[in-house]
Amino acid sequence: MGGLIGLGLASLPQSPIARLVLNDVGPTIQFEALARIGSYLGQPLRWNTLDEAADYLHAISASFGPHTREQWLALSRPMLKADGDGFKLHYDPAIAQPFKAITPQLAAAGEAMTWAAYDAVHCPTLLLRGADSDLLTRATAQAMTQRGPKARLREFVGVGHAPTLVADDQVAVVREFLLGP
Q1: CA–CA distance, 93 with 95 (Å, rounded to integer)
Q2: Predicted TM-score (pTM) of this structure
Q3: 109 contacts: CB under 8 Å, gap ≥ 6
Q4: 74-113, pLDDT tens digit by residue?
Q5: Please, what sign has the CA dihedral across residues 13, 17, 20, 23?
Q6: Cα separations (Å) of 141 from 75, 93, 102, 149?
Q7: What residues contact residue 176 under an 8 Å CB cut-off, 6+ apart?
Q8: Is pLDDT of 11 > 80?
């Protein structure tokens, strides 16, 4: 969701955003991926241990790519909050309501507006894509390199939706873009 918020802000007249990084998201979002995310988002889950919670999060997020156990625990901790003698997810479960309400028709209507916003972006843009992403297709990513800010596209093999920006190669791509000329 951060990528879409960033896209919206970068599309505003006189936007203060100087460089935009979009992580595996674009104007066309596959309905099936939204339905997949909506199937687990907002569930009232609770775990007895951090390890149990991390294992669950890893199971629903396997497409994020390979991670060491330490990396996965580091990614999981901020997503959890203590709940008595256990843990629960650290977000408002109502975040799932829009995912459950989306239909293919609503997704298509939003697509036209999001492409218009993307075409209004004028700052340098880096588009990251998991090569196995079910949310951002290769065709949409390629279109994003040809219109609007003509994003620089970097794909990561063995990753779906979405790169976690933990691996050294992923960090290097973002660092180079943000700190480069």
Answers
A1: 5
A2: 0.88
A3: none
A4: 999 999 999 999 999 998 888 878 877 778 888 888 899 9
A5: negative
A6: 26, 30, 22, 12
A7: none
A8: yes
Task: List the one residue out of 143, 167, 141 whose CA is nearest residue 154.
Answer: 141
Task: For residues 15 and 180, give the distance between their C-alpha atoms in angstroms, rounded to a whole number.
Answer: 20
> Which residue in this structure is represented by tokens 């459950």?
100
In three-state form (DSSP H/G/I as H, E/B as E, the rest C), the secondary structure along the chain is: CHHHHHHHHHCCCCCCCCCEEEECCCCCCCHHHHHHHHHHCCCCCEECCHHHHHHHHHHHCHHHCCCCHHHHHHHHHHHEEEECCEEEECCCHHHHHHHHHCCHHHHHHHHHHHHHHHHCCCCCEEEEEECCCCCCCHHHHHHHHHCCCCCEEEEECCCCCCCCCCCHHHHHHHHHHHHCC
Kindly report, residue by residue over 121-139, the tens digit of the pLDDT.
999 999 999 999 999 999 9
In this structure, the chain runs to a length of 181
* In contact, 111 and 29? CB cutoff 8 Å: yes
Q: Which of 148, 151, 146 is nearest to 125 (CA)?
A: 151
Inter-CA distances, 154 with 31, 83, 163, Å: 23, 39, 11
